[in-house]
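re: ur question from yesterday

yeah so i grabbed the chain u mentioned. its 308 aa long if i counted rite. heres the sequnce exactly as i have it in my notes:
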Amino acid sequence: MKLSVIVPSYNEEDNVLAFYNTFTQVFKDFKGSYEIIYVNDGSKDKTLDNLKEIIASAKNVKVINFSRNFGKEAAMYAGLKEAIGEYTAIIDADLQQRPEILLRMVTLLDENEEYDSVCAYQAKRKEGKTLIFLKKCFYGLINKVSDVRFVEGASDFRIFRKKVREAILSLEETNRFTKGIFSYVGFNTHYIPYCAEERNSGSSKWSLKSLFKYAISGILAFSTLPLRIALPLGCVTVIGSFIYLIVSLILKVELATMMLFFFLSFFSGVQLLTIGFLSRYVQLMYSEIKKRPVYIVKEVLTSKHYKK
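ran it thru and got these structure tokens back, copy pasting raw so excuse formatting
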């Protein structure tokens, strides 16, 4: 098998067939065999029904149907475990990421043996200014606190060789942050710009709240700075207490009461913040220790003419 294409799908009833038709048209002259692996991430609409219609007549299409919604990270991981191709690609079902670009990425791997992976990044984003600003802040922050480098705008839309897939699968952590994992495993990655098209149908599943939670997960997964910051904050607290004591003895006025209130409020906030970070790390450790699966598969469906 030359190429495995992973398509995470959550409530994409109007997109899965459109994606399949577009993909097969673009890859009609592709020299080599390929498989399309749809991962139905607990969709609540007719996504699964439409996928069953596809596999009834399609060639080399596999559907991994989750027992419930586990999230895109789990869907990508499931697809990687099922993929058997020499190359593995990840692409969204909504056609914002075009199969034409994926075909170009395949060609880049074919023609450049030194490339282990090809990743597409958005050279120009179409989101609102607030969202663009917040994403820039995220990349700026995580590159300062993390030991691995995150390329701004780099997406999950990428293709890589078998050795990269195996390296990714060797990291069996439960709380997965794939953007960081791609950076962590290394390898020679070539980046190409692309412009995200309008969604074929439906709306984005990402809200500002979910993006914020995703960003926090990434920072905690690839940085221990929130843990390390507790010691210097504690030192500042002790020094500040001594300064307050000295100033209070010297002034002996109402200002001392005001300062007392400020220091109590400030350092109480610092303590709560530190405890919050510690509790979040404990939560992540607790999740890992339980060894619960990243996802649960209800069924795996393949087309009648599916060939490995």
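noticed a couple things. The chain has eleven helices and eight strands. also Residues 37 and 171 are 21 Å apart (CA to CA).
anyway ttyl
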